[in-house]
Amino acid sequence: MAHVEPVSVSPSELTTRLAALREALTPEVRTIRENEPLAPYTTFKIGGAADLFVEAHSADELAAAVVAAREHEVPLFVLGLGANILVGDGGFRGVVIRNRAAHVETDAASGRVWAESGTVVWEPLIRQAVAANLSGLEHYAGIPSSVGGALWQNLHFLSPDRSRTMFIEEVVESADLLMEDGSRETVDHDWFDFGYDFSTLHIRPDVIVLAATFRLAPEAPEVLTSTIESNLEWRGARHPPLATEPSAGSIFKKIDGVGAGRLADWCGLKGTRIGGAMVTHKHANILINTGGATARDVRHLIGYVQETVEREQGYRLSTEIGMIGDFGDLGDVPAHGWENEDGFTDGVPPGGHPEAHADAERR
Ligand SMILES: Cc1cc2nc3c(=O)[nH]c(=O)nc-3n(C[C@H](O)[C@H](O)[C@H](O)COP(=O)(O)OP(=O)(O)OC[C@H]3O[C@@H](n4cnc5c(N)ncnc54)[C@H](O)[C@@H]3O)c2cc1C
Protein backbone atom coordinates (compact mmCIF):
# COMPACT_ATOMS: atom_id res chain seq x y z
CA MET A 1 0.00 0.00 0.00
CA ALA A 2 1.33 3.40 -0.77
CA HIS A 3 0.62 4.57 2.70
CA VAL A 4 2.15 4.86 6.12
CA GLU A 5 0.68 2.45 8.65
CA PRO A 6 -1.24 4.41 11.27
CA VAL A 7 1.20 5.39 13.98
CA SER A 8 -0.09 4.98 17.52
CA VAL A 9 -1.12 8.52 18.20
CA SER A 10 -3.91 9.81 20.41
CA PRO A 11 -6.96 11.35 18.67
CA SER A 12 -6.14 14.78 20.09
CA GLU A 13 -2.51 14.59 18.94
CA LEU A 14 -3.66 13.49 15.47
CA THR A 15 -6.07 16.44 15.34
CA THR A 16 -3.20 18.80 16.18
CA ARG A 17 -0.96 17.24 13.51
CA LEU A 18 -3.74 17.36 10.89
CA ALA A 19 -4.35 21.05 11.58
CA ALA A 20 -0.64 21.80 11.17
CA LEU A 21 -0.51 19.72 7.97
CA ARG A 22 -3.53 21.53 6.58
CA GLU A 23 -1.86 24.85 7.19
CA ALA A 24 1.40 23.69 5.62
CA LEU A 25 -0.40 22.33 2.55
CA THR A 26 -2.70 25.26 1.88
CA PRO A 27 -0.25 27.17 -0.34
CA GLU A 28 0.98 23.94 -2.00
CA VAL A 29 -2.24 22.29 -3.19
CA ARG A 30 -5.47 23.66 -4.66
CA THR A 31 -7.94 21.13 -3.29
CA ILE A 32 -7.96 20.38 0.41
CA ARG A 33 -11.01 19.31 2.42
CA GLU A 34 -11.80 17.90 5.86
CA ASN A 35 -14.01 14.86 6.58
CA GLU A 36 -14.39 14.09 2.90
CA PRO A 37 -16.41 10.90 2.14
CA LEU A 38 -14.22 8.55 0.10
CA ALA A 39 -16.97 6.41 -1.48
CA PRO A 40 -17.33 8.69 -4.56
CA TYR A 41 -13.61 8.32 -5.27
CA THR A 42 -13.73 4.53 -5.49
CA THR A 43 -15.27 2.32 -8.17
CA PHE A 44 -17.06 0.32 -5.41
CA LYS A 45 -18.74 3.55 -4.16
CA ILE A 46 -18.17 2.37 -0.59
CA GLY A 47 -16.25 3.80 2.35
CA GLY A 48 -16.28 6.41 5.12
CA ALA A 49 -14.57 9.79 5.25
CA ALA A 50 -10.92 10.81 5.31
CA ASP A 51 -9.89 13.21 8.07
CA LEU A 52 -8.08 15.24 5.44
CA PHE A 53 -8.42 14.93 1.67
CA VAL A 54 -6.09 16.52 -0.83
CA GLU A 55 -6.01 16.46 -4.62
CA ALA A 56 -2.64 16.71 -6.34
CA HIS A 57 -2.80 18.07 -9.88
CA SER A 58 0.86 17.65 -10.78
CA ALA A 59 3.76 15.39 -9.82
CA ASP A 60 5.24 18.31 -7.87
CA GLU A 61 1.99 18.78 -5.90
CA LEU A 62 1.88 15.05 -5.21
CA ALA A 63 5.47 15.05 -3.96
CA ALA A 64 4.88 18.16 -1.83
CA ALA A 65 1.78 16.64 -0.21
CA VAL A 66 3.52 13.33 0.57
CA VAL A 67 6.61 15.04 1.98
CA ALA A 68 4.48 17.36 4.15
CA ALA A 69 2.40 14.46 5.51
CA ARG A 70 5.58 12.62 6.44
CA GLU A 71 7.10 15.69 8.06
CA HIS A 72 3.97 16.10 10.19
CA GLU A 73 3.85 12.35 10.92
CA VAL A 74 0.31 12.05 9.62
CA PRO A 75 -0.69 8.62 8.16
CA LEU A 76 -1.20 8.97 4.41
CA PHE A 77 -2.71 7.03 1.57
CA VAL A 78 -2.12 7.78 -2.11
CA LEU A 79 -5.29 7.16 -4.09
CA GLY A 80 -5.41 6.64 -7.84
CA LEU A 81 -8.79 5.81 -9.41
CA GLY A 82 -9.79 3.72 -6.38
CA ALA A 83 -10.46 0.68 -8.60
CA ASN A 84 -8.58 -1.89 -6.55
CA ILE A 85 -9.48 -1.01 -2.98
CA LEU A 86 -12.19 -1.32 -0.38
CA VAL A 87 -12.36 1.58 2.07
CA GLY A 88 -13.66 0.80 5.57
CA ASP A 89 -16.95 2.27 6.80
CA GLY A 90 -15.00 4.16 9.49
CA GLY A 91 -12.98 5.99 6.83
CA PHE A 92 -9.30 6.88 6.99
CA ARG A 93 -7.57 8.50 9.98
CA GLY A 94 -5.01 10.71 8.34
CA VAL A 95 -4.67 12.26 4.89
CA VAL A 96 -5.77 10.75 1.60
CA ILE A 97 -3.92 12.24 -1.37
CA ARG A 98 -5.90 11.75 -4.56
CA ASN A 99 -3.51 11.73 -7.46
CA ARG A 100 -4.76 13.71 -10.45
CA ALA A 101 -1.35 14.56 -11.91
CA ALA A 102 -2.03 13.86 -15.56
CA HIS A 103 0.51 15.54 -17.81
CA VAL A 104 1.52 13.34 -20.77
CA GLU A 105 4.31 13.78 -23.31
CA THR A 106 4.45 11.64 -26.42
CA ASP A 107 7.44 11.21 -28.71
CA ALA A 108 6.16 9.28 -31.72
CA ALA A 109 9.63 8.96 -33.25
CA SER A 110 11.13 7.04 -30.31
CA GLY A 111 7.83 5.44 -29.24
CA ARG A 112 8.21 6.88 -25.75
CA VAL A 113 5.23 8.12 -23.76
CA TRP A 114 5.94 9.85 -20.45
CA ALA A 115 2.91 10.17 -18.19
CA GLU A 116 2.42 11.57 -14.72
CA SER A 117 1.22 8.88 -12.34
CA GLY A 118 -2.33 10.19 -11.93
CA THR A 119 -2.98 9.90 -15.68
CA VAL A 120 -6.02 7.72 -16.31
CA VAL A 121 -5.06 4.81 -18.56
CA TRP A 122 -8.47 4.38 -20.23
CA GLU A 123 -9.30 6.50 -22.05
CA PRO A 124 -6.94 9.49 -22.05
CA LEU A 125 -3.55 7.73 -22.06
CA ILE A 126 -4.56 5.03 -24.53
CA ARG A 127 -6.22 7.57 -26.85
CA GLN A 128 -3.05 9.65 -26.85
CA ALA A 129 -0.89 6.63 -27.73
CA VAL A 130 -3.31 5.59 -30.47
CA ALA A 131 -3.29 9.12 -31.91
CA ALA A 132 0.50 8.72 -32.28
CA ASN A 133 0.03 5.24 -33.87
CA LEU A 134 1.76 3.57 -30.93
CA SER A 135 0.96 0.09 -29.67
CA GLY A 136 1.32 -1.50 -26.21
CA LEU A 137 -1.30 0.19 -24.04
CA GLU A 138 -4.43 -0.51 -26.10
CA HIS A 139 -4.75 -3.96 -24.50
CA TYR A 140 -5.90 -2.32 -21.29
CA ALA A 141 -8.85 -0.46 -22.82
CA GLY A 142 -11.86 -0.47 -20.54
CA ILE A 143 -9.91 -1.15 -17.31
CA PRO A 144 -10.20 1.62 -14.69
CA SER A 145 -6.68 2.56 -13.58
CA SER A 146 -4.27 5.39 -13.02
CA VAL A 147 -0.68 4.96 -14.17
CA GLY A 148 0.45 4.65 -10.52
CA GLY A 149 -2.16 1.96 -9.80
CA ALA A 150 -1.20 0.13 -13.02
CA LEU A 151 2.46 -0.08 -11.93
CA TRP A 152 1.46 -1.03 -8.40
CA GLN A 153 -0.55 -4.05 -9.58
CA ASN A 154 1.14 -4.75 -12.95
CA LEU A 155 -2.09 -4.21 -14.90
CA HIS A 156 -2.92 -7.16 -17.12
CA PHE A 157 -5.34 -8.45 -19.69
CA LEU A 158 -5.55 -11.10 -22.40
CA SER A 159 -3.65 -10.74 -25.69
CA PRO A 160 -5.74 -9.99 -28.79
CA ASP A 161 -5.78 -13.70 -29.79
CA ARG A 162 -6.58 -14.55 -26.11
CA SER A 163 -3.68 -17.00 -26.01
CA ARG A 164 -1.82 -15.35 -23.13
CA THR A 165 -1.98 -12.71 -20.43
CA MET A 166 -0.29 -9.42 -21.30
CA PHE A 167 1.15 -7.21 -18.55
CA ILE A 168 1.80 -3.50 -18.53
CA GLU A 169 5.36 -4.26 -17.45
CA GLU A 170 5.99 -5.26 -21.08
CA VAL A 171 5.94 -1.58 -22.03
CA VAL A 172 7.31 0.03 -18.84
CA GLU A 173 10.77 1.44 -19.56
CA SER A 174 11.39 3.54 -16.45
CA ALA A 175 9.67 5.48 -13.70
CA ASP A 176 10.27 8.61 -11.67
CA LEU A 177 9.94 7.82 -7.96
CA LEU A 178 9.66 9.82 -4.75
CA MET A 179 11.72 8.11 -2.07
CA GLU A 180 11.20 8.08 1.69
CA ASP A 181 13.73 10.88 2.31
CA GLY A 182 11.97 13.14 -0.21
CA SER A 183 14.58 12.61 -2.95
CA ARG A 184 13.60 11.66 -6.50
CA GLU A 185 15.04 8.78 -8.47
CA THR A 186 14.51 7.48 -11.97
CA VAL A 187 14.56 3.68 -11.99
CA ASP A 188 14.27 1.20 -14.83
CA HIS A 189 11.78 -1.61 -15.37
CA ASP A 190 13.78 -4.13 -13.30
CA TRP A 191 13.40 -2.12 -10.09
CA PHE A 192 9.73 -3.15 -9.99
CA ASP A 193 10.36 -6.92 -9.99
CA PHE A 194 6.96 -7.26 -11.64
CA GLY A 195 4.90 -10.42 -11.15
CA TYR A 196 1.24 -11.40 -11.37
CA ASP A 197 -0.66 -8.73 -9.39
CA PHE A 198 2.70 -7.69 -7.93
CA SER A 199 5.42 -5.09 -8.10
CA THR A 200 8.07 -3.89 -5.62
CA LEU A 201 5.62 -1.14 -4.65
CA HIS A 202 3.72 -3.74 -2.59
CA ILE A 203 6.69 -4.09 -0.26
CA ARG A 204 7.98 -0.50 -0.45
CA PRO A 205 5.13 1.62 0.97
CA ASP A 206 7.66 4.42 1.34
CA VAL A 207 7.97 4.81 -2.45
CA ILE A 208 5.53 6.85 -4.55
CA VAL A 209 5.45 6.77 -8.36
CA LEU A 210 5.48 10.30 -9.76
CA ALA A 211 5.60 9.40 -13.47
CA ALA A 212 6.32 6.52 -15.83
CA THR A 213 7.90 6.22 -19.28
CA PHE A 214 6.37 3.63 -21.59
CA ARG A 215 8.22 2.35 -24.68
CA LEU A 216 5.65 1.57 -27.37
CA ALA A 217 5.90 0.17 -30.90
CA PRO A 218 4.57 1.65 -34.16
CA GLU A 219 1.30 0.13 -35.33
CA ALA A 220 -1.41 0.87 -37.89
CA PRO A 221 -4.34 2.76 -36.36
CA GLU A 222 -6.90 0.20 -37.60
CA VAL A 223 -5.09 -2.58 -35.71
CA LEU A 224 -5.09 -0.52 -32.51
CA THR A 225 -8.76 0.38 -32.90
CA SER A 226 -9.71 -3.21 -33.59
CA THR A 227 -7.98 -4.41 -30.38
CA ILE A 228 -9.72 -1.71 -28.35
CA GLU A 229 -13.15 -2.53 -29.78
CA SER A 230 -12.76 -6.25 -29.31
CA ASN A 231 -11.54 -5.83 -25.71
CA LEU A 232 -14.43 -3.51 -24.84
CA GLU A 233 -16.86 -6.02 -26.35
CA TRP A 234 -15.24 -8.89 -24.42
CA ARG A 235 -15.49 -6.98 -21.13
CA GLY A 236 -19.03 -5.79 -21.82
CA ALA A 237 -20.20 -9.38 -22.28
CA ARG A 238 -18.51 -10.74 -19.15
CA HIS A 239 -18.27 -7.98 -16.55
CA PRO A 240 -20.96 -5.96 -14.78
CA PRO A 241 -21.03 -2.35 -16.03
CA LEU A 242 -19.34 -0.04 -13.51
CA ALA A 243 -21.80 2.78 -14.09
CA THR A 244 -24.77 0.79 -12.77
CA GLU A 245 -23.10 -2.01 -10.80
CA PRO A 246 -20.15 -0.56 -8.85
CA SER A 247 -17.37 -3.03 -8.05
CA ALA A 248 -13.63 -3.32 -7.49
CA GLY A 249 -13.18 -5.82 -10.34
CA SER A 250 -11.92 -9.26 -9.34
CA ILE A 251 -11.90 -9.68 -5.57
CA PHE A 252 -9.90 -12.89 -5.25
CA LYS A 253 -6.45 -13.74 -6.55
CA LYS A 254 -6.16 -16.07 -9.48
CA ILE A 255 -5.47 -19.71 -8.66
CA ASP A 256 -3.36 -21.20 -11.45
CA GLY A 257 -5.20 -23.56 -13.72
CA VAL A 258 -8.50 -23.29 -11.83
CA GLY A 259 -9.58 -19.66 -11.50
CA ALA A 260 -11.13 -18.12 -8.40
CA GLY A 261 -14.32 -17.21 -10.28
CA ARG A 262 -14.82 -20.73 -11.53
CA LEU A 263 -14.40 -22.16 -8.00
CA ALA A 264 -17.01 -19.77 -6.61
CA ASP A 265 -19.30 -20.51 -9.57
CA TRP A 266 -19.00 -24.26 -8.96
CA CYS A 267 -20.30 -23.59 -5.45
CA GLY A 268 -23.37 -21.89 -6.87
CA LEU A 269 -22.39 -18.56 -5.33
CA LYS A 270 -23.51 -16.24 -8.12
CA GLY A 271 -26.35 -14.11 -6.82
CA THR A 272 -25.40 -14.64 -3.15
CA ARG A 273 -25.81 -11.46 -1.18
CA ILE A 274 -25.19 -9.98 2.23
CA GLY A 275 -26.83 -6.61 2.78
CA GLY A 276 -26.16 -4.51 -0.31
CA ALA A 277 -23.21 -6.62 -1.52
CA MET A 278 -23.79 -9.38 -4.05
CA VAL A 279 -21.77 -11.87 -6.11
CA THR A 280 -22.73 -10.73 -9.59
CA HIS A 281 -24.44 -13.16 -11.94
CA LYS A 282 -21.97 -12.15 -14.65
CA HIS A 283 -18.79 -13.29 -12.92
CA ALA A 284 -18.44 -15.17 -9.63
CA ASN A 285 -15.15 -13.39 -8.80
CA ILE A 286 -16.79 -9.95 -8.86
CA LEU A 287 -18.82 -8.56 -5.96
CA ILE A 288 -21.05 -5.60 -6.72
CA ASN A 289 -22.60 -2.86 -4.65
CA THR A 290 -26.30 -3.19 -5.40
CA GLY A 291 -26.93 0.14 -3.66
CA GLY A 292 -26.09 1.16 -0.12
CA ALA A 293 -23.62 -1.68 0.46
CA THR A 294 -21.29 -1.12 3.40
CA ALA A 295 -17.69 -2.24 3.63
CA ARG A 296 -18.91 -4.56 6.39
CA ASP A 297 -21.35 -6.21 3.95
CA VAL A 298 -18.52 -6.75 1.49
CA ARG A 299 -16.13 -8.15 4.12
CA HIS A 300 -18.80 -10.59 5.30
CA LEU A 301 -19.60 -11.67 1.75
CA ILE A 302 -15.87 -12.14 1.05
CA GLY A 303 -15.63 -14.30 4.19
CA TYR A 304 -18.69 -16.26 3.18
CA VAL A 305 -17.32 -16.97 -0.30
CA GLN A 306 -13.95 -17.99 1.16
CA GLU A 307 -15.52 -20.36 3.67
CA THR A 308 -17.84 -21.90 1.12
CA VAL A 309 -15.16 -22.43 -1.54
CA GLU A 310 -12.77 -23.91 1.01
CA ARG A 311 -15.40 -26.30 2.32
CA GLU A 312 -16.80 -27.28 -1.08
CA GLN A 313 -13.73 -27.17 -3.32
CA GLY A 314 -10.74 -27.40 -1.02
CA TYR A 315 -9.13 -24.08 -1.95
CA ARG A 316 -8.63 -21.04 0.29
CA LEU A 317 -9.17 -17.90 -1.78
CA SER A 318 -7.17 -14.81 -0.87
CA THR A 319 -8.18 -11.27 -1.73
CA GLU A 320 -6.33 -9.18 -4.28
CA ILE A 321 -7.88 -5.82 -3.41
CA GLY A 322 -6.40 -3.47 -0.81
CA MET A 323 -8.34 -2.93 2.44
CA ILE A 324 -7.91 0.69 3.41
CA GLY A 325 -8.72 2.47 6.68
CA ASP A 326 -11.00 1.69 9.58
CA PHE A 327 -13.39 -1.29 9.25
CA GLY A 328 -14.50 -1.22 12.88
CA ASP A 329 -15.54 -4.44 14.57
CA LEU A 330 -16.59 -6.79 11.79
CA GLY A 331 -17.81 -9.51 14.15
CA ASP A 332 -18.06 -13.09 12.91
CA VAL A 333 -19.01 -13.99 9.39
CA PRO A 334 -22.74 -14.72 9.79
CA ALA A 335 -23.99 -18.25 9.39
CA HIS A 336 -27.40 -16.83 8.58
CA GLY A 337 -28.70 -13.70 6.98
CA TRP A 338 -27.51 -14.29 3.45
CA GLU A 339 -29.51 -15.39 0.47
CA ASN A 340 -29.17 -15.77 -3.24
CA GLU A 341 -31.72 -14.62 -5.75
CA ASP A 342 -33.25 -18.08 -6.03
CA GLY A 343 -34.31 -17.73 -2.43
CA PHE A 344 -31.71 -20.11 -1.04
CA THR A 345 -31.32 -18.71 2.44
CA ASP A 346 -29.36 -21.02 4.67
CA GLY A 347 -26.85 -23.83 4.96
CA VAL A 348 -24.57 -25.01 2.18
CA PRO A 349 -25.42 -23.54 -1.19
CA PRO A 350 -26.08 -25.84 -4.12
CA GLY A 351 -22.81 -26.42 -5.92
CA GLY A 352 -19.59 -28.29 -5.97
CA HIS A 353 -19.17 -28.93 -9.67
CA PRO A 354 -18.86 -32.71 -10.35
CA GLU A 355 -15.65 -32.15 -12.33
CA ALA A 356 -14.16 -30.21 -9.45
CA HIS A 357 -14.97 -32.93 -6.95
CA ALA A 358 -13.46 -35.53 -9.26
CA ASP A 359 -10.17 -33.64 -9.32
CA ALA A 360 -8.76 -34.74 -5.97
CA GLU A 361 -5.18 -33.63 -6.66
CA ARG A 362 -5.84 -29.97 -6.15
CA ARG A 363 -6.62 -30.43 -2.45
C1 LIG B 1 -14.51 -3.13 -13.32
C2 LIG B 1 -13.06 -3.42 -13.04
C3 LIG B 1 -12.34 -4.21 -13.91
C4 LIG B 1 -11.00 -4.48 -13.68
N1 LIG B 1 -10.33 -5.26 -14.57
C5 LIG B 1 -8.99 -5.46 -14.39
C6 LIG B 1 -8.23 -6.21 -15.37
O1 LIG B 1 -8.75 -6.68 -16.38
N2 LIG B 1 -6.91 -6.36 -15.14
C7 LIG B 1 -6.29 -5.85 -14.04
O2 LIG B 1 -5.06 -6.02 -13.91
N3 LIG B 1 -6.98 -5.16 -13.10
C8 LIG B 1 -8.30 -4.95 -13.26
N4 LIG B 1 -9.01 -4.25 -12.32
C9 LIG B 1 -8.33 -3.76 -11.11
C10 LIG B 1 -7.84 -2.30 -11.23
O3 LIG B 1 -8.33 -1.73 -12.41
C11 LIG B 1 -6.31 -2.24 -11.26
O4 LIG B 1 -5.76 -2.85 -10.12
C12 LIG B 1 -5.80 -0.81 -11.35
O5 LIG B 1 -4.43 -0.84 -11.69
C13 LIG B 1 -6.03 0.00 -10.08
O6 LIG B 1 -5.54 1.32 -10.31
P1 LIG B 1 -6.05 2.54 -9.44
O7 LIG B 1 -5.45 3.78 -10.00
O8 LIG B 1 -7.51 2.52 -9.32
O9 LIG B 1 -5.38 2.21 -8.02
P2 LIG B 1 -6.05 2.44 -6.57
O10 LIG B 1 -7.13 1.44 -6.37
O11 LIG B 1 -6.37 3.85 -6.37
O12 LIG B 1 -4.81 2.06 -5.65
C14 LIG B 1 -4.35 0.71 -5.63
C15 LIG B 1 -3.00 0.68 -4.90
O13 LIG B 1 -2.02 1.35 -5.69
C16 LIG B 1 -1.35 2.32 -4.90
N5 LIG B 1 -0.97 3.45 -5.74
C17 LIG B 1 -1.79 4.18 -6.55
N6 LIG B 1 -1.09 5.17 -7.13
C18 LIG B 1 0.18 5.06 -6.68
C19 LIG B 1 1.38 5.81 -6.93
N7 LIG B 1 1.40 6.86 -7.73
N8 LIG B 1 2.52 5.41 -6.33
C20 LIG B 1 2.52 4.33 -5.50
N9 LIG B 1 1.43 3.59 -5.22
C21 LIG B 1 0.27 3.96 -5.81
C22 LIG B 1 -2.39 2.74 -3.88
O14 LIG B 1 -1.79 3.37 -2.77
C23 LIG B 1 -3.05 1.42 -3.56
O15 LIG B 1 -2.28 0.72 -2.62
C24 LIG B 1 -10.36 -3.95 -12.53
C25 LIG B 1 -11.09 -3.14 -11.65
C26 LIG B 1 -12.43 -2.87 -11.91
C27 LIG B 1 -13.18 -1.98 -10.96
UniProtKB/TrEMBL annotation:
Record field: compositional bias (Basic and acidic residues): 354-363
Q: Which cofactor names does the annotation list?
A: FAD
Residue ranges of every copy of the FAD-binding PCMH-type domain listed in the record: 46-219
* Pathway annotation from the record: Cell wall biogenesis; peptidoglycan biosynthesis
Q: Where in the cell is it found?
A: Cytoplasm
Entry similarity comment: Belongs to the MurB family.
Q: What is this protein called?
A: UDP-N-acetylenolpyruvoylglucosamine reductase
Which species?
Rubricoccus marinus
